[in-house]
Design goal:
Largest sheet: 5 strands, antiparallel
Order of helices and strands: EEEEEEEE
Number of helices: 0
Structural class: mainly beta
Radius of gyration: 24 Å
Strand content: 35-45%
Distance between the termini: 51 Å
Shape: globular
Amino acid sequence: MAQGYKIPGPGSGNGRDFDPNRTRGPPVQGYKNGGGPPSAPYNLMCQVTSEKEADVSWTLPSGQPITSVNCQLFELQGNNSVKVVEKIFGGGTQSVTVTTGGSLGQYVLQVRADNQYGTGKPAAIRLG
């Protein structure tokens, strides 16, 4: 149960201890100072530059502090995917050049934004 303030009821006196603005006392439990993990990057775009290389760009969510961007490259193998590489970039990164070991169509790039509250949901794009 959240910690809060006791509201005076009938017969509890004049209610001088009641603070309707909640400016004194301990905060309500569970409050995260308005923060949380960032939203997923959006507007992912892929520009093929060669048979095994592509430039991938995205837009980061605005109004949210981003400390880093996590990129994971997966190779598709039948109904499964295998992580090939993972790299972490600075919080303002909005594009990378991806070089693969095979045909671009067999790879997916997953992008996540991180901040002090955690890791956001991923956005993904198939290369090629």
